[in-house]
Amino acid sequence: MAAIFEQVREAGGFVFVSGQTPLTGSGEVPDDAGEQATVVIGKIEGLLAEAGRTLGDVVKVTYFLTDIADLAAVRAALDAALPHPRPAASLVEVSALVDPRFRVEIEATAYRPSA
User: Fold this and answer.
1) Per-residue pLDDT reduced to its tens digit, 6-37
2) CA-CA distance, 86 to 59, in Å (whole number)?
């Protein structure tokens, strides 16, 4: 089934990255929530690069966790990847994500004024 949304959408200097999951290119999903967050951030970084942006352009992230106990591990992964100043952020604990192996999903908004 084809997706009904775009992975990335640009509008007026903003780049919106749809929620990314920890499914790797080889179809694997790490067990650890921190490792899942690292995979997700890598996917976001790649999509931003395709749009001519970097993680330094990220102004807002929303992350979804299936277990709030994973918060410290996910924050550590985000802290390691996102430069200062940190983006604004929202956290939502959810009962489930699209695949029961997923513990983390992250969406991002980047901004860089047009030259």
Assistant:
1) 899 999 999 999 999 999 999 999 999 999 99
2) 8
Q: What's the angle, vertex CA 44, arms to CA 62 and CA 91, rounded to 5?
A: 15
**pTM metric for this prediction:** 0.93
Q: Which tokens sit at 49? A: 């690069």
Structure tokens at 9: 């959408």
| Per-residue tokens: 45 | 């970084």
| Measured torsion, CA atoms of residues 79, 84, 88, 93, in degrees rounded to the nearest 10 | 0
Q: Which residue has the tokens 């277990």?
A: 67
C-alpha radius of gyration, the chain, whole number:
14
- Using H for helix, E for strand and C for coil, what is the string for 61-111? EEEEECCHHHHHHHHHHHHHHCCCCCCEEEEEECCCCCCCCCCEEEEEEEE
For the CA atoms of 110, 76, 97, 100, what is the dihedral angle to 10 degrees? 140
Q: Measure the CA–CA gap between 23 and 5, rounded to whole angstroms.
A: 18
